[in-house]
Amino acid sequence: MIRLSGLAFISLPTPNTREFLFYRNPSADTRLDLKEFDNDFIENTKVFHFGSITLINEPSKSSTLKAVKIAKDAGAVISYDPNLRLKLWPNAKTAKKEINATLPLADVVKVNDEELFFLTGKDDVKKAMDEILFKGPGLCLVTQGEKGCYYKTNNYFGKFNAYKVDAVDSSGCGDSFVSSILVKIIDNDFKKIILNKDIMLSTIKFASGAAAITSTKKGVISSLPNKNEVEKFLYNK
C-alpha cells in the first residue's frame, strides 16, 4: 500500500526559537502497522527509542506500544522522548493523559523544560523530575537549550551548563542530545550509568557536545555529528 509521507515545516524567528507547521494525517507515520515490523530485529536490539507522535492515531498507537513491549520483554533499554507537538493532538488534555500513561514503559525519559512543566505542573525542576521518576523510569533528562540540561536518577541529581557556540539553528539539538545518550548506553551498561554519577557526567558531556555541534549548522539530519566530531569538539574544550 502506498502511503504519503508527512511533512514538517520549521521556521526560525531566532536561532533558539522554532515554529512548526505540519502536513499529515493520514500519512505513513499514522498508519504504522505491526505486521510490517521485523520482530526479530526488535527482540535483538539493545535500545528501543520512541516518541509520542506515533501514539496520537491508530493503528500507529497500538503498533508502537506493541513494539515497545516486544523490546522491553527482550531486555532492551526503553528510551522515550515525548517530543510534544500540541498542534497534532486533539487537545492538550488528551496529550497530557496519553504521554503520562506511557512514561512507566520507559527506562530513560528525555523532555525539555516546557514539556516537564506540561506533564507535571511543577515549577521546581527537581520535584518535577522526581514525579517522572516515580512513574518508573531510571533516568530523567531535561534539556534547556543554551542553558544546558538537568539529569536525575534515584541516586543523584545534576546540572550541566551548555557549551558556548555560535548557534544558528536549534532544530535537531534534542535529537542529537538523546541519541548521543543512547550511544553511550549501548557502549556501557545502563545500570552502571544510573548508579555512577561520574559515568553519567561523562555521558552528559558527550551528549551536550553533540547538541552544541548540531546547533552550529542548519537543518536536522544533516547537522547531526558523528562520534569522531564530538570527541574532537570535546578535546578542544
From TrEMBL:
- Biological process (GO) annotations? fructose metabolic process
Q: What's a Gene Ontology MF term here? A: fructokinase activity
GO cellular component terms attached to this protein's record: cytosol
What UniProt keywords are attached to this protein's entry?
A: ATP-binding, Carbohydrate metabolism, Kinase, Nucleotide-binding, Transferase
Species of origin reads marine sediment metagenome
- InterPro entries in UniProt: PfkB_Carbo_kinase, PfkB_dom, Ribokinase-like
Q: Which SUPFAM superfamilies match?
A: Ribokinase-like
Name the chain's protein: Carbohydrate kinase PfkB domain-containing protein
Xref: Pfam families: PfkB
